[in-house]
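Hi Y.,

Following your request, here is the sequence exactly as I used it, all 821 residues.
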Amino acid sequence: MHEKSIQTLEYPKILERVAREASFAASKELVLALQPATSLEEVRERQAYTSEAARLLDLQANAGVGPARDIRPLLARAAREGVLTPSELVEVLNTLRSAAQVARLLEKLDPEEFPLLHTLGEAIPERPHLIRRIEETVNEDGEILDSASPLLRRLRFDIRSATQRLQERLRTIVNELAPALQEPIITIRNERYVVPVKVENRNLVRGIVHDQSSSGATLFIEPLVIVEMNNHLRQLQIEERQEIERILRALSHEIGREAEALTAMVERLAEFDLHLAKARYSRLLRCSEPRLNKEGRIDLRGARHPLLSGRVVPIDFHIGRDFFMVVITGPNTGGKTVALKTVGLLTLMAQAGLHIPAEDGSEIAVFEEVFADIGDEQSIEQNLSTFSSHLSRIIEIVRQIEAWEERSRPAIRGERAHELVRVSQRTETSQQVPPILVLLDEVGAGTDPSEGSALARAILSFLLERRITTVATTHYTELKAFAHEQPGAVNASVEFDIETLSPTYHLSIGLPGRSNALAIASRLGLDERIIERAREFLGSAGVRMETLLEGLQSERKAVADERFRLSMERAEAEHQRRQLEEERRRLERERVRILNEARARARREVEEVQAQLARIKLDVHRVNLTRERLEQARRQVRQLDEQLELLPEPAQGQRQEEEAELSEGPLQVGDLVRVLPFGQNAELVSLAPERGEAEVQMGSLRFRVPLENLRRLGGRQAAERQSGSRSPAIVLPRVEDRAAVSMQLDIRGWRVEEALEQLESYLNDAALAGLAAVRIVHGKGTGALRSAVREHLAKHPLVKSYQSAPAREGGDGVTIVSLSA
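Below is the corresponding structure, written out as tokens. Let me know if you'd prefer a different format.
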């Protein structure tokens, strides 16, 4: 991809932050070298790796590569027959252990849920024999163990024995020569045992002088009687050192033979840690995996620039369905450039396999090239150089696009063939969007406004004709008209709050931005005569444009408010529907329980009579029973049997019977139908097949129902309905029977005590009316009423949660309350 654009969009800064989440040098190296992929399949695989790593961290938060190190330089030296030190062997050992642990962890994962990580675990080479060899050779502190070889064990035993005999002999000498010694101690000089002798008593101790104190008062002498013992000890120590060197050389040679496999092991560990680093960064920024496409569609929902800190206002942005060029206008410092960078940077992040800081369901297109001309130079003195710099970048972008067109064009020679190719290319281009994203900030700025505007329009026309996915920012009014008139292009704007004279940073697509210069000037107190004079200079067309934009913004705000109101009403209706359904189910369960109890009671009575009749039959020969009494008992049994048959079957059987009697014929207005979700009968009032809906009348309740939820009643049931002889039905409570409660309580200007009293009553009424959410309008003011209301809501048992309304719906002056179900 275009390297300058990648730098402009600050993609390397993202990699630096991801690298902080990596555990060792090899994985940090992979992170910093991570480049956006241009293949849809590769991007999907990268995203899948990150998602699997995120799920793994949810299962095991401490998953990682442990104390692994980048031992590739050590492996290269060992492969060249170099000798590794004990501390380097410890690094190799820790890395081998980490690889074994990671391989076991990944192989235990469910292949269905973690297919990529499971396969990666199978690809990690394991060398358990090397782990055992190194563990037998060195300890965790890098010291050679006696178990490294039988010879080393014997030599160290001999060294300990020789040292013990030598020290015992020296202690005897020290006791004998105590008056001649500076101190009655044994010390070492030049790796040989000596005693400290006073310089004036030099002749009293026969031996070899190895050293002298800095003051010259003490000589360190090796007595002649222990020279052979010292020589024997030194010989053993030399043999020990030689054996250690042999052990290290042999073990290093063994590691060198496995250098290729161990290098692959380090690379697999680094790849695993790379995916974990991406997943940790995703959790840190609350990111999500985007949906991907190759058709140039971008749909960002609640997107945040990952490098911004503090309170970041998310934006919604979409392009690539009905249009492929967005021209953003609005005041300075309003967020135009941030929106531009957010689109570009999140695209690069997604193609690199990183999750993006946006809501679930966001979509990103995979581009082969991303070009960005975004400059921050605002100095008047540098206008010429700024314009030249921007123009140089645009020239480079145009050349790159033309080169892409050449690569995509079939190789046909000849003038006529070239003309045919150009025609076919136009046809093909009108159907597909080239995989190129262009981001232009303040296009045409830095020069004469009329010439800059004309140049900007020509550049955008060049991109528009080639269906290049383009996002541009500008202050030119002519470009607003261009985006409005040209098919495939659309205006967008960053909003500005005239009341507070500050940007809201919200991005609105479909509406051009206003300059707000005159409105700001009026708000700041500039003389109205000057503002009116400015309006005259602006011209009637400009004034009409500003008035039109103001009206459009007001209309859009009203539509947004209406949409919110409808969504609240829809939520309330859905809540009431769920309540009705639950009530119907409860009544059905109660009906089934009562019927079952009645049947059980009847069966018990029948069984008692049958038992009594059996006893009568057994005693017929022993008891003087008349034929009349026996016949009377039999009649009683038959009556109970008849009563038992008259009892309804359980709900399941009855439901199956009723379903069998439903007619499968076409629905017609006036039919009696069964409303399946409610299990009730109703009359069909109207049909709307094109929308798949019908309107039914159930008692006094009239509502719309999807056609698939209706069944026409069979002949017997319809006849019963017409004749009025049908069984009593369960009457569900109607929405109209509930008390009408407003979805909003306005307490602005109230005293705190009165407001809280009214709030308490309102919450109770709203809960009884089944409202799922309500709005409390308390205003901003000093914040005292808002604090009292929210403190009351925090302790209220009917309140599930509460939050400030969005800025366009009142912000901190309105609290949206969710009520417990």
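The two ends are 53 Å apart (CA to CA).

Thanks again,
Q.
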